Batch of 2 targets.
Target 1
Amino acid sequence: MTLSGKDGILNEKLFITLFETHKDSIYRMAYLYVKNQADSLDIVQEVAYRAFKNRKSLKELSYFKTWILKITINASINLLRKKKKVVELHFSSELGTHQTEERYSDLLLHELLNTLDEDEKKLIFLKYYQEYTFQEISEMVGSPISTVKSKIYRTLEKIRLEHQKEEYS
Amino acid sequence: MNKIQSELEKIQIPDEVMDRMYKGIENAKREEKTTGMKPNSKRKKLIGSLAGLVAVGGLFFGSTLVSPAMAEMASKIPYLNEVFLKDLDKDGEKSVFALVREEGLRRGYEAQGLRVGQGLMEGDDPDKVYVLLKSKDYNEKTKMDAEKLTKEMLEKKGYYAKSIEVLPFKADFYASMRRINRLEIDQAKEIQSLLKKKGYSVDYVGQIASMRKLLVIIPESENRVDEVRDIVRNYLTKKDFEAEYPIDLRTMDLSNMDQDTKLEKDLHTIFEGLMAKKETYKINSFTYSTKNQLVITIETSLEKKDQKQKEQIRKEVAAQLDKEYKKPYTINMVGLEELKPIGE
């Protein structure tokens, strides 16, 4: 499907519709990284901002989801970095840890949120939540399929081990 | 539905999500309004252009190490051109930093540095302008005032900053910028030699720091573009760059350059040569202007007693320049004693 106009293929209305369609994915992906609602919402806003600003760069509507998820990943990583730096630099005394982490009792979700690193979270999200193929993920993240595969399998193993550990401890 | 899906479905979607999306869109639109005015009026430029401005301002923060050098390539690339080169010729004018510093001193505080974020280190926001105040002058009041002042001065010059952050001067902040620059140049060189070793032709590899991407230029005759991209991507992955770190890979014919571009490319080569001897030469920045005549200004951390080394640098630059450049030029050397204080 190709539409065209002065906004490229995405006019505002279409942008909103597509964003709404994928808002759950965007929010959950962000949440997976930052683990709290306030930051996840900040990321949603940032993603909308960046995506809308660069809407002309989207060449085909069918890429919208991949495109917006990539933006989400970048925005999440950026926010995490910023937070790390702020703590490290000079505000360490002023910055209390106000952010309350939502409590999800389920162990598996807890592990997904807390034991995986950023890269692992991304791959697991893309593979099992979004159900992208290895090929698609490989293209998205710019690593060879073999690397993607082995990382995902390793991560699964890690989750499995953690899960057992939690259950039996 | 698989297990992971059902787990993640437990993350509830707050009602505000769509509100926040609208806010994001609004912000983007507002920005479009301020940046997207008539092409020939004195329109506000995006903040990336500050990279060039800082270089001309003679401020010796780490960022200046890279930006002028990057500018040479930029001339061949449509959008970068706009971003970098316009500000390199403005030597008659005072830089934003100079203006902020002057007015700040009048108001009782001293600004010691201004730079554009590069997004290269954690927390360093590429959309942000950082202003560093002398630690003893830094408090809530001066922070706010300096923020306002910087915004005014930027606007006066036609720049638009998404955000401004005022911080107390920190030596380690400065030092880490320097380290990053060093690292960047080393990595770019490593990629270039890696490609050459594997038999690919490559003309240029460099970080466009202010845009947070890696620029790779290969000659038009090299058609194994995808292979080159794979090698670069692999290298970045190995170096723990994020998986999406942008690689801007372009093919262009550099042998057909116009005079100005050629000069800029040569200057870059000279600059790289100096950087290779950074330990002895202690180069802080390398800036140039081509307004009436070529003027090169080199700032070093060399002290007065190192006059000999300074002469050496000058000679080396002149020798290289004389090979190709037939017009008159001036080389200014600026050493530590001429620089405004930076540390305490």
Note: The CA atoms of residues 139 and 145 of chain A lie 8 Å apart.
Target 2
Amino acid sequence: MSNLLEQFISQECTAYVRRLLEDAIADAATPRPHFEFNRFEITIEREANIVTLEDVLDATATGVQHVPLAEFTAALEQCLA
Amino acid sequence: MGRVAAGVFAIPGAGNLIKYVGKGGKYVLRGGKAAYEAAQATQTGTKIAGALGRRAERELAEEGAERLAAGGAARALPGARQIEAAWGASTYRHGGLMTGMEHIMYRHSAGSGFANVSRYAQGTTARNIVGYVDDALRYGTVSPNGPGAYMVEHNLGRAIGTNIAGEAASSIRVFVRDGVIQTAFPF
């Protein structure tokens, strides 16, 4: 698991956030859903099967991570209860 | 003897002197009584002061015990900050260069335009937030968050806003990088 994804899962991904993201992944009507959370912004690019995580506190290249959609979906299972 | 006495009274003013000495004696007696009464009053005052002091001490002890029982230790002085952290400016991904407080007000104020973020309660001032962050830096749990970066979490014991789900939140999470407070929000 990449470092930014790991931090998102451990710091920001509550049951509520997980449900929002899973609903968005399942909803084909919105091709590129974008979410603004406290520290992270998440963009789901369904057609490209990529999820982009952006650290709003880090404007450098290390503040962006592209993760395969399947890896992101699997990581959501580790979200906080 | 009668002659002697007559002789004494013959001295000019001697009779008056004796009169005055006699009266002086009375005054001395009266003065002694006043001094005694003053001493009594002082003693009573001391007793009252002592009683008030003991009462104040008892009240302080009771208050301290209540605070301890409520879970908050009675602190004479604030604890030291656990990490170096100061308010300053950072470059954010959205908004570019701004101060930590500007970022907090932009993203986490009650009326911010962001959809899924934590928010401070309506009416929360920058001074309130500075106080919350200061408490967190002194008494919170510090976790490393990458090179030169820390995350600090602290339960303030009272609702300060809402979390991402819109539920009441009483904890604060602070992010510090290179000694600069970057953000702080309820969770």
Note: The radius of gyration of chain B is 37 Å.
